Amino acid sequence: SEPVYLLGIDTSCDDTGVGVVALTASGPEVRANVVWSQTVHAEYGGVMPELASREHVERIDQLLPQALAEASIELADLGAVAATSGPGLMGALLVGLMYGKGLAQALTVPFYAVHHLEGHVYAAATEENLAPPYLALVVSGGHTHLFDVPTQGEYHLVGATRDDAVGEAFDKVARLAGLGYPGGPAISAAAERGDPLAIPFKPPLQGQAGFEFSFSGLKTAALLAHQRGASAEDLAASFQRAAVRALVGTSVRAAEAYGRETLVVSGGVAANRELRAAFAQTGLRVAFPAGGLNTDNGAMIALAGAAALQARQTSSDLGVSAAAYVP
Ligand code: KG4
Ligand code: ZN
């Protein structure tokens, strides 16, 4: 039988992502994934919401035909449209959400509003063909969230960061060590030339009974070590070791507490090699996204839409609105 083609759109922050997934008899396949990463924010040292919205408006019309061409399909071949409805920057979200809803209405196909973090989770789960139950760890510049996913579409928050997201900590430590931006890949590269035991950073919150994360104390400890003259390489290696141990340690304890043997890890920080290596040694079955699907993108939103379609979930009402904060 013919596959159902789903378009996925993500404009939650500073990346405009449009992707296409084909839902075939053997499951979902990513057929296109085009992302425009905004650079206008670099000079401000942080994302400027209004500029992000305007860039999404300017780019999305170009990305749609690119994604369709990459998937070798026509607009009329689309069988469903999915777009992120939250969480994210309100103005930015609205661009992709309205675009997706308009497209679905014009094509008279079902529309699926997708939670951004659910998109991240499906980016990893689909790679290994995993179905719930599993634990899901989303680690990015904006999130450090651990969920229990007992069945398709059901998410229970197990723990999150009390302060900085882990990717944010990578970015800040890279900046103070003069390693540039984005910080994650820079720390990872510098760490290969450093000694992970040079600075005895304690992995945060490892004695706790709960499943929370915290990275601001580690960031401050890194600043102090830098001021005392630690090399950028040793700082990178020691910081990375502590951050990875905190993520892996808490996830493993949570897996035991929740009786889960499978974990999906996604978000920008899931690209980290040390993190992947450390999880590989836990004895848990661990899934990571394929290349290009770690960071924000539209294909992961189409994958979440495909899962909803496969589970015969009812599509979203076209009155659905964007939400900056979604529990
Ligand atoms: O998922 P993402 O693209 O955007 C957000 O939703 O935040 O994640 C970006 C974050 C940045 O903080 C970046 O430094 C981090 O992911 N990152 C990494 C690596 N690659 C990207 N962190 C650690 N190691 C990496 N290799
Ligand atoms: Zn994200």
Automatic annotation (TrEMBL):
Top-level taxonomy: Bacteria, Thermotogati, Deinococcota, Deinococci, Deinococcales
Cofactor note: Binds 1 Fe(2+) ion per subunit.
Organism: Deinococcus radiophilus
Compartment list: Cytoplasm
InterPro entries reported in the protein's UniProt record: ATPase_NBD, Gcp-like_dom, KAE1/TsaD, TsaD
Domain of life: Bacteria
Cofactor(s) in the UniProt record: Fe(2+)
Protein known as: tRNA N6-adenosine threonylcarbamoyltransferase
Amino-acid positions noted as binding Fe cation in the UniProt annotation, renumbered to this chain: H116, H120, D296
Enzyme Commission code: 2.3.1.234
